[in-house]
Amino acid sequence: MDYNDSEPLLGPRREDLLPTSTERSVKVVVVGGFGVGKTTMVRSVSEIRPLTTEETMTQAGVGVDDLSGVERKTETTVAMDFGRITLNDQLVLYLFGTPGQQRFWFLWNGVIAGALGAVVLVDTRRLEDSFPAMDRLEQGGVPFVVAVNNFPGAPVHPASELRSALDLPEHVPLVDCDARRLDSSRDVLLTLMHHLYDSATAPSEAL
């Protein structure tokens, strides 16, 4: 069948194609409480147009979703976020962000399945919201790092106090970040990659 050369063919956009040198792709999930910045992180760092499932919050969520500390939030993720970042010529990360509200937690198993590692985003105004995410990752055996998203006006605590409050083991990296910035979000992902490498190459404890 003839076609007009001036008309675009169906298929991925040129900028969405993987580099030909790519040797390995890794699935990483971004988890955390409601309104902690998961969608923002995926958007800021993704080299392709991110897929988001944000919907406008309606009266149906009143009395169901806890908006303490995020009263100005008007949209929420109802399924997942998806993005991609090429860390070097050989390694590509596929990023999946989970929904934050408890009523959507049933979707987490499918999103987390097959993940090599995870980023747990934390808001110091709502530390307790990060516990379910960390519990789910620990139960699934998924290594993770914790990134404190620095919201304007949020209280700042020493790392030792945050570790104690989160009951975070010393071997789990704890870093600060600004999920709105590409360089900051990328550094969090690099910290996760280093953590995964260190965990994989650490000598096994003697039985």
UniProtKB/TrEMBL annotation:
<dbReference type="InterPro" id="IPR052705">
    <property type="entry name" value="Gliding_Motility_GTPase"/>
</dbReference>
<keyword id="KW-0342">GTP-binding</keyword>
<dbReference type="InterPro" id="IPR004130">
    <property type="entry name" value="Gpn"/>
</dbReference>
<dbReference type="Pfam" id="PF03029">
    <property type="entry name" value="ATP_bind_1"/>
</dbReference>
<keyword id="KW-0547">Nucleotide-binding</keyword>
<protein>
    <submittedName>
        <fullName>ATP/GTP-binding protein</fullName>
    </submittedName>
</protein>
<dbReference type="InterPro" id="IPR027417">
    <property type="entry name" value="P-loop_NTPase"/>
</dbReference>
<keyword id="KW-0378">Hydrolase</keyword>
<comment type="similarity">
    <text>Belongs to the GPN-loop GTPase family.</text>
</comment>
